[in-house]
Amino acid sequence: MSIPGNLMTTAMAVMPHTDVDQAKTVEKAFALTQQLSHNLQKEFHLT
């Protein structure tokens, strides 16, 4: 699924922003948080 318009990340698509670099930083932080959560769930058999 492609991101509509001239947006570079999903964070840019879902939250208002004027600072592209800040939106990219939020996107990376969100992705890392999701990956950590997934790894912890897998490690401790929480799923």
What does this structure look like?
The protein has 47 residues and is mostly helical. The protein has helices spanning 10-14, 20-43. The protein has two helices and no strands.
Query: Which stretches of 5+ consecutive residues score pLDDT under 50?
Result: none
Spell the H/E element sequence.
Answer: HH
Q: Major sheet: size, sense and barrel closure? A: none
Average pLDDT taken over every residue: 77
Percent range for helical residues? 55-70%
Instruction: Please report the distance between the alpha carbons of the first and last residues.
Output: 26 Å
Gross geometry: elongated
Give the number of helices: 2
Proportion in β-strands: under 5%
The helix-and-strand class reads mainly alpha
The total of beta strands comes to: 0
Our Rg estimate from Cα atoms comes to 14 Å
Write the layout of secondary structure elements.
Layout: H1 10-14, H2 20-43
